[in-house]
From TrEMBL:
UniProt protein name: Transposable element Tc3 transposase
Organism whose genome encodes this protein: Parnassius mnemosyne (clouded apollo)
Gene Ontology molecular functions: nucleic acid binding
Amino acid sequence: MVIREPGFMGSIIWSDEAQFKLNGTVNRHNCVYWGEENPHITIEKAINLPGINVWCGLSSRGLIGPFRFEGTVTGINYLTMLADSIFPAIRALYGNDDFYFQQDGAPPHYHRDVRAYLDQNLSGQWIGRRGPIEFPARSPDLTPLDFFLWGTVKDEVYKRKPRNLDILWNEIQAVCREISLDVLIRCTESVVTRTQNCIDAAGHQFEQY
């Protein structure tokens, strides 16, 4: 697809959800640290703290959102958000220009009504589980939201030590507004290189500078 359509990567709207907790902890479960000895470090953190589930889209034209879910993300409330918030925002940004909408294989995204909605509104132009362009299962974290956006936003939001959910949400929106378009463009342009590095490493870990 990239070879057949040179502008393909720049036309993708990458999307994902993330959870922000009031404890100010950035989830780095995919990080691996090498050392000569096992430090046997125990990280203590509170559980069941209040938080916010947030959706955001990232493209070479700007961010779409962030949008806030009320409660757990389900197929039904994701579909409602697509129709009421996400797609109107995309249309405002893209007008009549073509774009491809990407989502991963999370259960809410795979909901039958969600896929039907995307088929109806984006015939042949969405990327996801059982979509016209398949999103690979258990793929490495190579989308711009995974390798850049969520970590950047959480790092900055938690520096500000929000005291309640309303302040937390305001800070999330503020940090997203501070990200420049130039940074977003560089992120989208780096996806091909990152993907090729992963292919060259046969799926093993590699250094990314």
